[in-house]
Specification:
This protein has six helices and no strands.
């Protein structure tokens, strides 16, 4: 996932500092590495021979989502439902995996959703 994440790192740096973008890319990589459904999809090639590339693109899409959503909303809250939709739709379309059983919340993906909600002040 590291190579595909570099493109997203560049996009993220427009809103995040270089250090912040690198930290976010690392976070996404670690969380996706622990997401059972995604790991099974890649290992068992549910998305075909390019399953790893599809997982890399998903990571890049998530990083880009945070960047675009943050830039569009300024200091406002990000909509975690948009991120959830991105994860569900991509898993379905890329891996033919229907994970409506709560799989997005499993394995740390919920942490990405929580990151989209600013902490109370």
């Amino acid at each position: 996932m590291a190579s595909s994440s570099r493109t997203a790192d560049v996009a993220a740096s427009r809103v995040l500092s270089e250090k912040g973008a690198a930290a976010m890319a690392e976070c996404v990589g670690l969380l996706f590495g622990k997401w059972t459904a995604l790991q099974l999809a890649v290992q068992n090639q549910w998305g075909g021979h390019d399953s790893q590339a599809k997982a890399d693109r998903l990571a890049s899409s998530v990083l880009s989502w945070f960047t675009r959503a943050a830039a569009a909303r300024g200091a406002g809250a990000l909509d975690p439902d948009e991120l959830e939709d991105l994860l569900y739709v991509t898993m379905d379309e890329s891996f033919n995996a229907d994970i409506d059983d709560g799989g997005v919340e499993e394995g740390g993906a919920v942490s990405l959703k929580e990151a989209a909600i600013p902490a109370p002040r």
